[in-house]
Write a structure and sequence with these properties.
This protein is mainly β. It is about 0% helix and about 50% strand. The protein contains no helices and 11 strands. The chain is globular, with a radius of gyration of 13 Å.
């Protein structure tokens, strides 16, 4: 059974930075695409960024140039560096490991609040 544990969320002022981490248990981390999603109150969960096993990255338009996703397979960890944060980035952030289209694992989420 794979477990994903996010950390690094918190309260930050507009323009500030946070770095989220998602650590995976088990030995299959390196076999899957890792992604960060977020869900704001009253909104649907949306893809923020993803990174494949070959380090190909894609980002939501709203975060391009501000967020960077990376992965460390040796540590079974994916990161999301978030810079120039805006109030509209406030959400619960979830990481997801996708092994196949049918086999996906989610973390429990970490709250990010951007407010002065």
């Amino acid at each position: 059974q794979v477990q994903l544990v996010e950390s690094g969320g918190g309260l930050v002022q507009p323009g500030g930075s946070l770095r989220l981490s998602c650590a995976a248990s088990g030995s299959i981390f390196s076999l899957g695409t890792m992604a960060w999603y977020r869900q704001a109150p009253g909104k649907e969960r949306e893809l923020v960024a993803a990174i494949t096993t070959r380090d190909s990255r894609n980002y939501a338009d709203s975060v391009k140039g501000r967020f960077t996703i990376s992965r460390d397979n040796a540590k079974s960890t994916v990161y999301l560096q978030m810079n120039s944060l805006k109030p509209e980035d406030t959400a619960v952030y979830y990481c997801k490991l996708s092994i196949t289209t049918e086999t996906n694992y989610w973390g429990q989420g970490t709250q990010v609040t951007v407010s002065s």
